[in-house]
Amino acid sequence: MKINPIISLAIVFILGVNTISCENIIPEAPADEDVLDGAIEGLSTAGQARFLSGDEAFGEIFFSGNGLGPLFVANSCGSCHVGDGKGHPFTTLTRFGQTRANVSPNLEIGGPQLQNRAIPGYTPETIPKGVPFMKFTPPAVTGLGLLAALTDRQILDNADPNDINDDGISGVANYITPPDYFIPRWYHQCVNGKYIGRFGKKAATIDLLQQTVGAYNQDMGITTTFEPVDQASRLTIDPEVTDQTVRDVIFYLRTLKARIQRSTDNARVLTGKQIFSDINCSSCHRPEWTTPLSDIPALSNKTFYPYTDLLLHDMGSGLDDGATEGSAETYEWKTPALWGLGLSPDAQGGEFYLMHDGRARSIEEAILIHGGEAQDSREAFQNLDVYEKEAILKFLESL
Amino acid sequence: MTKYILFALIVVSSNYSFAQQVDSTLLKQTPVDSVKERAMNMDAVYNRPFLQLGKSPVSLGGYIEANYEYIGEDGITEGHSFRIPRMTLFVASSIHRKIKFLSEIELEEGGKEIAIEFAALDINIHPLLNLRGGVVMNTSGAFNQNHDGPKWEFVDRPVAMTEMLPATWSNVGFGLYGKQFKNEWAFGYEVYLTNGFDNSIINNDENKTFLPASKTNAERFEESSNGEPLLTGKIAIKNDKIGEIGLSYMGGIYNTHQEDGLMLDTKRRLDVFTIDFNTTLPKLNTYIVGEWAWISLDIPFTFTQQYGDRQRGGFMDIVQPVLKREILGFENVTVNIACRLEYVDWNVGRFRETDDNMGEHLWAIVPAVSLRPSPQTVLRLNYRFMQQTDILGNPPVTTAGIQLALSSYF
What we know:
In chain A, 31% of the residues lie in helices and 7% in strands. Chain A contains 13 helices and 10 strands. Chain A is globular and about 60 Å long.
C-alpha cells in the first residue's frame, strides 16, 4: 500500500501536537534545591507580580543610552550577582581610601569605590599610589529578606565584644552613620546617632535600600533620588532609575527564597553538621534564626538557617587588607552566610572564589585562611581525621 | 531533473510560473545569463516569483510567513504562540532594457516594524559592470542575500546569520557588481560603499557586542553616523556540478569619533569576514548549505569585556528530499527531511582577570520535516534544541520545543 505523504505529515503533526500536551518536549526545570532564584513560599499574587518587576529591574542591562556610568564596575545587578548567586573575579570590585575606622570616605581621591571601567570616550579611575584597598567578590543575594527582618536586638544578643564567655570569639556590630534618606523601623536601635550595619562584607550598610542605591550609584554609575551624585562629575544629576524601580528591586531582594539545603538526611552530612558545631564554627556561622512579625506575612515568624551571626570578627593578619568601613577595623569581617555555598560554582563559572575577595579556590582553602578569632576553630578543623574532614566538607557543600 | 527541482526549491526558489507571468527582461540580468541554471546567491533579489499586471512594466511579489511555536526554557514556557514574523512585498520595474528597479519592504511582527530592505536602481553597462544605487543589501554572506522564508526548510533563521551578523542589513549607498561565465563555471563579484554601523553595537541592552543593534537606527538612511563609509564586498565562484562558494568582507570605522568638529573618541574599526557554500550531492540529491562568519572590532580597553571584541559563528543545513510526486492535484509535491546545526560564540577571548575562556556561546540542533505542495510554498515542522551559556561559563540554559510554519511566496 502506498502511503499518502499529506496524510503522513498530518499524522506527524498530530503526534507532535499530542506530545505538546504531554509537555515532555520542553526541557525540564532544574530542581528547586539546585537553583538560587525563585520567590519565597506563601507570597500573594500581587506579591508575585511585584517580585517579577523587581526581578526584571535586577536584570536590567545599563548602557550609556540609559545611564550607565560614565564610570562603572559592571552594567547590571544580575551580571555581578549571577542567578542571584556569587560573583567572579571579572565583577570583583575594589574599595579604597579609608584606613582608619570611623572616618568618612575620602571622596576627593575618588573613594570609596574604584570605578575601573568607563564607557567609550571616558577614562576610568585608578587607585592613588600608596592607598590601601580591598577587593570584594560579589556575594549571593538570596534569603536577605529574612536577615533584613531580624531586629537589631536579636543581632546584638550574639555580640560579645569583651569575650565575656571566654571562647576566644567576640563578635561586634558595625555602627554606621545613616544616610539622610534612612528611615528607622521599629526593629532598628540607635546608638549615638548610628545604626547597626548588616549587609556587605564588613556590614557597612544598614538596610537593603542603602545597599541597593549604593550599588546603583557606585557599581553602575546610576543615580537615584536617594544617591543623586554622579561618580564621574561629583555633581548631582537627574535620577536615572525611578523610586518605583528601587522599591521593586528591594521587594525582590526581600522575597527571594532562602536556599534549600540538599541531602539533609545523608548520614555523612549529618555527621559533618555535628562536627561543624563541635569545633565551634557555629559560634560565628550561627545556624538558626527566627524572624519576628514582618509587613510581608511570608516573612513573619519564620525559622531559617543562614549560618551567620551578622557580626564582625577579627580574622587575623592574613585577612587584614589595610582598609576599612564604618567602625569595622581593617582585619574585621562580617561572618558571611553559608547558605548556597555548595551552589557557588554554578554562578562562578564552575569554580569556587570564596572569602571576601575570592582568594580561596575551594571550601577547604577558605577554612584554612581563617585566623584571629577563628584560629582555634581552624586548628580544630586541621586536626580532624580524613573521614571527619570529608564529612564537614560534605555538609558545607550541601548548604 | 530532481536536482534541478531541489536547486529551485532552496537556492533560487522556483520559476514555476515565470514563463507566463513574468516579464523575462526583468529577470534577465545579462543577455548570456539564463536565470534558471546560472543564478548565484547574488541574484536572489531578482530571482523571485513576480506577478505582472497586464502589460505594465511593473511586477509585484512577496512572501509571508506564519508560525506556531511551543518552546520552553529550563522548564518555563510561554505556552502556545502564533505569530507572523514577517511579510515582505517586492515591487520591480523595468525602466529600460538596461535599467531596472527593485524594492523590498518588510513588515515585521504584524507591522510593528516596517523596514526597507532593498530599494535600488540597477544600470547594466556590461555583464561584468553593473551600477547599483539606493538602499542596498550589504553582502555579508549568502544567507542575507538569499533570505526569503519560502526558500528554507527551517522555521527560524540561523542565529549567527541574523543576530551575530545583522539579518538583511541594508544601507544607503552605491556599488558595482558583475558576473562572468565560462563553461560550467560562473564568477560573480559585488562591492558597495554605504553608510554603516554606529556606537550601539557595543552600547546596547543585549549585554553583548550586537551588530544588529545598528538596525534600529533609522538615521542611517539619512546620514552616516561618522562620515566613514562601510565597505562591503563579495566574490563568489560557482560550478554547475559542484556548487557555489562565496567570500565576503564588510568593514570600516563604526563609531562616532567626532561630531561638529569635536573629537569624541578615537576611530574604531569593525571587520567581518564570511564564507558561504552550497552544494548538492550527486545521486543522493542531498542539498548542503552552510556559512561561517568572523567578526572582530576595536573596543576601548577600559570598557567592559562583557562586550566582546571577537565573535564567530555559523550554521549548516542538510536537506534530503525523500519524496516527490503528484498528490491531490499538486503536481510536484516534495517532502524533505532536514537538519540544521548552529553555533555562535558571542565573545571569543579570555577574561583579563583569570585568563579563563569567556563563555557566552550557544549551539543548536534542529531536525525538520518540510513539505512543499508547490516549490513556492513550504509547510515545515521543526524541533529545536538549543543550549546557551553565560559569559562566565555557568551551566547552560536549555531551550527546546516544536515549531510549525507556513511560508509562501504570493
